[in-house]
Structure formats: C-alpha cells, structure tokens
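TA notes, week 10

Several of you asked for a full example with nothing omitted. So below is the full record: structure tokens for the whole chain, then the designed sequence directly under it. When grading your own attempts, check the secondary structure regions first.
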C-alpha cells in the first residue's frame, strides 16, 4: 500500500511538472528506447502506463543528476554509449542515397534472397517420441492428408502452446530467422520432407516442409534496403574516422 502511495505521489509531481503533458514524439522515443516497442501501436492502457512512467522518470532524472550521478562511472559509460547510438541513427537517417549509387552497387554484387520455408512443427519431450512421429507421419503420402494428420497430431501432442493452437503451422519464414540447429537440419531438405531437430533443453521438434523458396538473385527493389544500409554504414564509418582525427 505504501509503495502505491509513493508511486502516486511521484506521478502527481510529474503531472504538475508536465502541465501540458509530454508530446507524442517524446513518448514514441521513450517507448522505443526503454521497451523496443512502437508507442503508436500500443493499447490505450499500455500508452497510459508508458506515459506515467515517462513523466515519473522526467522528474527523477534531473534530481538524480543534481546529486552527482553524472560523475558515476557506470552512468558515464551508459550516457556515452547512448549518445553515440542516438547520434549514429540521426546521422544515417539524414543521408539520402541516390538511386544511381545504389544501382551501381547492385550491379557489382550478386545479391540473393534468402531461402524461405513454409513450415509446420510439433514440439515433444524426447527423441524417441520425435522418431515415432517422423516415421508415422511419413507413412502418409498424400500432401493434404499429411497436413490434416500433422495438424491433428500437433493439437494433441505438441508442447508448444502457440503452434499447437494452429495445428503446428508456423508459415513462411526466412532461414536466417531460425536457430542454427534448425538451419543445419534444413540443409539439402526438399518440399514434403519430415525431420526432427534437438532444440536445446526444450526438447525435440518435428518439422514438415509444406513448401520452400530457394535462394535466387534479388531484384533491385528487393535488394534496395540492404544496399541503402551498406552505403549508410560506410558513410557513418567515414564520418566516425573524420571525427576521431579532429581535435
């Protein structure tokens, strides 16, 4: 109860200081930095909680710094790190890379789209169970019948509550978003394959490849975000070198 009263008092003080209320821009930045989320996409309650927390921190921050926190080594390191991160983002965001530069870079490199797989999975506790499932599911040769059987089995046996609700369906996913163990297991696999993978302490996963898209040459538009990032990072690197040389 005392804790709730203290939080309420601090919030009231923050509210008085922010008579006009924090701007949406401030809240968007705070939510992105503190929670790595998009403030505008949150529920009304979450937005209100974020706003209250930001207002409290806006009161406490200056008061803590006034007590000498700016001389604390841990604070200095955190402040310097954040300063570099914020400056780097603003610098790269300010860059406007011409299409001509990007097309030249595109012509010099053989950029490919990553392989993607339409996957279904069942999570089980041990290898023996996984082996039994791989063998039993593999007996069904008709693709639609296999999908139905896999889905029913996932709902009954999968220890993963999320995919169990969807009948084991993961959907399309690029290979880079999967763990290294799963990436290795997918090597040389083809559409229709069923296989098992050990997933650390979680157990074993049984996968079914409904479909796949092999790597191919990326179109300019597909490669453009990567090209933009490459050029921006190169320019950022040059700017950092320039700043380090200056007195």
């Amino acid at each position: 109860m005392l804790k709730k009263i203290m939080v309420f008092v601090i919030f009231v003080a923050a509210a008085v200081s922010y008579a006009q209320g924090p701007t949406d821009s401030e809240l968007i930045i705070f939510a992105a930095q503190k929670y790595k989320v998009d403030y505008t996409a949150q529920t009304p309650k979450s937005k209100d909680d974020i706003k209250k927390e930001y207002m409290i921190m806006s009161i406490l921050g200056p008061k803590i710094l006034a007590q000498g926190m700016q001389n604390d080594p841990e604070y200095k390191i955190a402040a310097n790190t954040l300063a570099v991160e914020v400056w780097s983002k603003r610098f790269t965001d300010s860059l406007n890379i011409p299409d001509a530069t990007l097309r030249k870079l595109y012509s010099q490199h053989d950029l490919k789209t990553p392989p993607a797989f339409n996957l279904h999975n069942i999570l089980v506790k041990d290898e023996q169970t996984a082996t039994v499932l791989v063998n039993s599911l593999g007996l069904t040769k008709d693709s639609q019948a296999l999908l139905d059987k896999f889905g029913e089995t996932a709902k009954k046996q999968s220890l993963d509550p999320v995919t169990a609700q969807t009948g084991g369906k993961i959907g399309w996913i690029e290979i880079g978003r999967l763990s290294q163990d799963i990436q290795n297991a997918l090597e040389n696999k083809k559409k229709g394959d069923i296989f098992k993978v050990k997933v650390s302490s979680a157990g074993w996963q049984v996968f079914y490849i409904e479909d796949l898209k092999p790597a191919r040459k990326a179109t300019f538009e597909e490669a453009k975000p990567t090209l933009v990032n490459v050029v921006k990072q190169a320019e950022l690197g040059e700017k950092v070198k320039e700043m380090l040389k200056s007195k």
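The chain has a mean pLDDT of 90. Use that as a sanity check on your answer.
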